[in-house]
Amino acid sequence: MFGIKKFLIVAAMFALFAATANVSAAASDVTLEPSSQIVTPGDTFTVNIFVSPDVDIAGMQFDLVFDSSQFQVSEASEGSLFKQSGMDTFFVAGSVNSGLLNDAYGCILGASDVATPANFASVTVTATEQSNGRSELVLKDVIISDPSGNAVDIELTNAVISVVIVDINQDGVVDFEDYGLVEQHFDETTSYPYPSWDVNQDDIVNVLDLMLVLSHMD
Ligand SMILES: [Ca+2]
Ligand SMILES: [Ca+2]
Ligand SMILES: [Ca+2]
């Protein structure tokens, strides 16, 4: 008796799990990659708008919201998502103004579509000299179209950028004095407001903080 009951419960849970898995799979994923990243003030890096289509698609638009006191963002440049169709494509880089990359869009010219994951676009981001701490790059007004002009279901993943200060003693150079300061506090736990030797502000001073200083030495 107990055995059958247990079997039924397990079967019911499995059915529920399968149903949930189906629901979350039925969307095209749009992901800012890398979705988390540690940089220092003045660093320039690339963020890709990566698309994993769940169905055949042929057109897309997006906005990107960012903190303009932390970052400068370039216009978008086209990735391979729609070019992989082998057809010509149309691409508009959008315009950048006060914390918004607005209305970047593109599509396949002609009757074709794609379903293979690829970058739709890339943007170049520079952390300003005043930047510090964590902030998000956020996708907005994202629409993906199937070949007939119908919007498809999408799921968005934004990016978190942490700007860290590796000149621990703030004397204008990153050298072994800064490394030494981190070393002196090795294995200490920290909390907000973080001391400069917990470089990545994760509540503990360890090898990750040492590496951030080492990898940015002048
Ligand atoms: Ca817009
Ligand atoms: Ca220093
Ligand atoms: Ca740390």
From TrEMBL:
Domain annotation Dockerin: ranges: 161-218
Q: Which GO terms describe its molecular function?
A: carbohydrate binding; hydrolase activity, hydrolyzing O-glycosyl compounds
A GO biological process of this protein is: polysaccharide catabolic process
Task: Identify the domain of life.
Answer: Archaea
Q: Which InterPro entries match?
A: CBM2/CBM3_carb-bd_dom_sf, Cohesin_dom, Dockerin_1_rpt, Dockerin_dom, Dockerin_dom_sf, EF_Hand_1_Ca_BS
**Protein's name in the database:** EF hand domain/PKD domain protein
Source organism per entry reads Methanococcoides methylutens MM1
**Lineage start:** Archaea, Methanobacteriati, Methanobacteriota, Stenosarchaea group, Methanomicrobia
